[in-house]
Amino acid sequence: xxxxxxxxxxxxxxxxxxxxxxxxxxxxxxxxxxxxxxxxxxxxxxxxxxxxxxxxxxxxxxxxxxxxxxxxxxxxxxxxxxxxxxxxxxxxxxxxxxxxxxxxxxxxxxxxxxxxxxxxxxxxxxxxxxxxxxxxxxxxxxxxxxxxx
Length: 149
Fold this sequence. Notes:
- There is one protein chain.
- The protein is α/β, with parallel strands linked by helices.
- The chain has helices at residues 47-62, 125-137; strands at 22-24, 38-40, 65-70, 81-85, 88-94, 103-108, 112-118.
- It is built from two helices and seven strands.
- Strands 1-2-7-6-3-5-4 form a seven-stranded mixed beta sheet.
- The mean pLDDT is 80.
């Protein structure tokens, strides 16, 4: 009687593509010091949910996200103070007059401050793609002064 050599099937784990729509500029020591460090096209106006998806991508690159500065124009439902992003606290400060509503500043635990252009969620895909490509190619500094409230 022959022995069966058929192995049991390997478990299949579906590949999950990051759902965050993000374009980052490559930062080098000789990079020019102007413009954003990239662009982010969130899917909604829910900052807590959107930051979780953004942190999934940025935390491994920049270190844990610890602080966010934003203009509240595009984020109506987010309270002042601290929000939980992927099981850790992130401080959110609002600057209604001191920060462009189409920008967000992110501070990480190890890479410092980063400035991203925010493409509004309902922007048409062709326009959003142009904005993201331009911001990803622009000369960002990788370091921005934190706004004063």
